Structures are given as C-alpha cells and as structure tokens.
Amino acid sequence: MSPSTEFTCREIVRCLSLSKDGIDAVLVVFSLRNRLTEEEKSALFALKILFGSEIVDYMIVVFTNEDFLEDEGDTLEEYLEDSTDFKDILVACNDRKVLFGNRPKAPESQKAKQVQEILNYVEEVSRKNGKPYMNDLSHEIQEHETAFQEKQREVLEMKKGGFTEQDMSRMIENMNNSRDAQLLNEMVERVERKLKETVEKLEQQLNEERAARLELEKKAIQVEKRSSDVAKKLNKEQAARLESEKKANEVKKHTNDVINKLKKDLSRAENMTRALQGKAKQCIIM
Questions:
Q1: Mean pLDDT, consecutive 10-residue segments, the chain of 286 residues?
Q2: Coiled-coil annotation: which residues (predicted)?
C-alpha cells in the first residue's frame, strides 16, 4: 500500500474515533494551485473503498487559494472546464463546493461568509440524508473505543494496587499505540481486501465486455457477409431487370417504328385511292 493511502487510513481512523455518532459531512479539500494529484486520487479511492460509494452523498468540496484565480484572471468555472477529474467529483457530490481565499489580510466578513457557506452545506447534507453516515467500519471503531475505555478504567483501578502515575501513564500510552496499530492494520487489510475484490470485479467485467465485443464483432461479420450475399443477389436481379427493361424498350421502339411506318403507308394508300377515284369520275363525265 502506498504511503499516501496508509496516511489516509490513519487519518480516517482518527476522525472516526472523534465522530462516534456518525459522520455529518466530509470536507474534501483541494488547492487550486495544483491539478488533481495521484495522491489525492488515491485518497478519494481509499475513501470510497472504506465507506462505500454512498459517502459521496456527504461530501463537500472545498477549493483553497481563491487568490490564485484572481491573480490569473480566471473564474472557478473556467478553471474546472479544463479539469475532467474535478468535474466528475463535483457531479458525484451534487456540485457542493466552496471557494476559500488564502490571503492573510482578507476581510473578516469574507472569512465568515466562506465558513457560513460550509455550514449551510453541512446543514443541507444532514437534512437531505436524514441521519449521520455510519457503516461497518464506524461500528468497529466504536467497539474498539468502548473496549479501550474499559481497559483505561482497569488501568486507573490499578492505582489502588500500588502502581505509580508513571507506570499507569506508560501503560495507557502502550495501550494507545497498540490500539492505533491494531486499527490501522485492520483498515489496511480491509483496503487491500477491497482493492483485490475491486480489481477482480473489474477484470471480470472487462472479460465479459471483451467477450461481448467479440461476439458482436462475429455477428457483425456474419451480417456483413449476408448483406454482401444479398447485395450480390440484388445486383444480379437488378442487372437482369435492367436488361429486360432494355429489351422491352427496344421491342417497344421497334413496334412503334413499325406502327408509324404502317400509318404512313396507310396514309399514302388512302391518298392514292382518293386520287384514283377523282380521275375515274373525270373519265365517266367525259
């Protein structure tokens, strides 16, 4: 596991120990002076693995270094336009974001306004979700905390048995270290286990998608072949039809030529008949 992920796990244990009744909101802080780093991506990934995808319903994104945008003459929207990673995060958490300035001499009214924005979002998240977020990890840490407090009481009872304050302080410190180490180890194991499960699911999904794609490609080739065969058949039929139409047109033209010739011959014969009839009448009169 990377050092950044281990640090994230350690901080999560510490925060959960402080939020015994559940999580009201999760503030995810990014600096506008840097693009989303691999460490930050790993931290977000670890957060989702440990708490589940539902944790995004409690997330509020805080962007620091507002003064950087002012110096560059950019707006937050322009800055985010070039960052797909940030846009995906904001879409997931319903665009809950607060912009914080880092100028030492910023007006108190501006600082108060920014803090109030966060509190408003926390209230919105609480109202929307209805209850603080808790999962199996939260319950496990609560159980560890309860057991630890019980051991602390036992140590304090040892004072009656003649133990010095120094002895008890050392014992409590050892207990603290042991508890933190145990919780961290359990969380690291949980992350590694879920990472393995996630990778296996992704590999299975990838294999299924690859198999489905190959099947689609196979069907596409078959369809293309059938289409090619059909196209060839259609081309042959079309060629035959065109040839038939050509011959029919030739016959029609020949027929029309014959008819026109017959009409001309008939007209010529009629004219000759009328001429002969006229001459015959003249002969009779004479």
A1: 60 67 85 82 77 86 85 81 83 89 78 89 90 69 65 60 60 62 67 71 83 85 79 80 82 79 73 67 57
A2: 181-226, 252-279
